[in-house]
Amino acid sequence: MEVAGKYDYVIVGAGTAGCVLANRLTRDPNVSVLLIEAGAKDDYIWIHIPVGYLYCINNPRTDWLYRTEADIGLNNRSLIYPRGKVLGGSSSINGMIYMRGQARDYDQWAALTGDDHWRWENVLPVFKKSEDHYNGATAFHGAGGEWRVEKQRLSWQILDAFRDAAAETGIPKVDDFNQGDNEGVGYFDVNQKRGIRWNASKAFLRTAVRRGNLEIMTGCHVKRLQINDGAQGKECNGVEFTGGGKEWSAEATKEVLLCAGAVGSPHILQFSGIGPAALLQQHQIPVLVDAPGVGENLQDHLQIRMGFKVKGVKTLNMMTSTWLGKMKIGLEYMWSRSGPMSMAPSQLGAFAKSDASQKTANLEYHVQPLSLEKFGDPLHNFPAFTASVCNLRPTSRGHIRLASGDPLAAPKITLNYLATEADRKVAAASVLLTRKIAAAPALQKYAPEEFLPGLKFQTEAELIRAAGDVGTTIFHPVGTCMMGKVGDKLAVVDSKLRVIGVNKLRVVDASIMPTITSGNTNSPTVMIAEMAAKFILEKTDK
Fold this sequence. Notes:
Elements lengths: L1 E11 L3 H10 L7 E4 L8 H4 L4 H4 L9 E2 L12 E2 L21 H11 L6 H11 E3 L13 E3 L7 H12 L15 E4 L4 E2 L2 E2 L2 H9 L5 E4 L2 E11 L2 E11 L2 E13 L2 H11 L2 E2 L1 H6 L6 E2 L11 E8 L6 H4 L3 H14 L11 E5 L10 E6 L15 E8 L7 E3 L10 E3 L6 H18 L10 E4 L7 H11 E3 L31 E3 L14 H16 L5
Parallel strand pairs: 1-2, 1-13, 2-10, 5-6, 13-24, 14-15
Antiparallel strand pairs: 3-4, 7-17, 8-9, 11-12, 12-13, 16-19, 16-22, 16-23, 17-18, 18-19, 20-21
Helix pairs in contact: 1-7, 1-14, 5-14, 12-13
């Protein structure tokens, strides 16, 4: 086995959280850090052109190519389940939407963990620390940080009409979704810089690599953590990984920081002997720590995609239907870094309540000036828009589990979408609300006609079946290494993100969320990593 060396910190995964941690820890010139990434460098051109997500998702160069287990709630369908396999992780292939969630999300984390560090009033300054907001520093936003936030560089008449229609149904127009209560309708802010994707690698690694105390190894797949008996119990002293056709090991004198994401982190823990004992024994893995919560508590936002044909208005479907149209789009991007090639997958957003009993918005819309049957298919040959709506606070729970005794094999990903009566009722209500918006006066001049899932679905039972037909992931898996109080059977890490039962080991990524945030999950992951760096560097673990 080749020895990569001895470092103060070994970070597993150069996704969003790993990039942030590498930056923050290497600010001290006396600290050495090894960052291990299974993917390649982020030098693929389609990573950086915003519309290039179409060529990055389901591409082995940038995506792990996971698939979910067939899901009863989705009428026995299996889904592609994109996760970034490249420097920057999923921030290199995602929708670029800058979203924090709601104040209630973080106050709930604080209550569940018993730690006020996670209250909204305390995470807000952490969000602001890394932010570089186009409006400059305000009470809610930061300036001068690494994480660039900009307005989108185009708008659409059909989306403006949807915004007006939503307002006519009681969803207020807003300009900022990130002040703690995101109810309203408006254009999303995005992680871009002058029309180019701004991923975590650009934001946090470019500076860090120039400091001389960070080593990055790409194309290296971590197989397991090295867990030994220490003076105060079990401790993690390093990692074992493959790369370049060789077997490697690296030693961490201070800590190993597991940042492999909501799919990768529990998978690595399980192969390292930390997980549900029965599962590990099934695959002949010695049980070092019986941790029933590892891989459990998987949450995701299921989007119900509703498509509407329209008349007399421009949509991307028709703009891309000819070579001349495609050429105009390309020239506009080359000339001004604007136009459809600069757009995030979803431009307009809305947050609403599925019913009056909700204290805060529990639905999120992603509205697009385009339509297609499913991801990867060509756009339809008629003008249309898509309004995808997700339940922000699902009660269904899935899990990540070993598929075999091979650490390089993909895990089993089971979502259990729409497994609860509450989730099914919200799904049906969200379809009805979308129809109400489409029927509002502001959209009528474009004669919207629902074709997906279609007006033949009317009763609650029919709407639930339709949700199973058209529902798909919006790529927000969290919760599989849940943060909680020591003694909570499902808690994997404590409130300082230390793995319960193993010293010198933390998990730092979206897997630690006890409950999913009310919105897109990438920027909350930046905040989680900032908070972890604070715990480590300020010695606030006690």
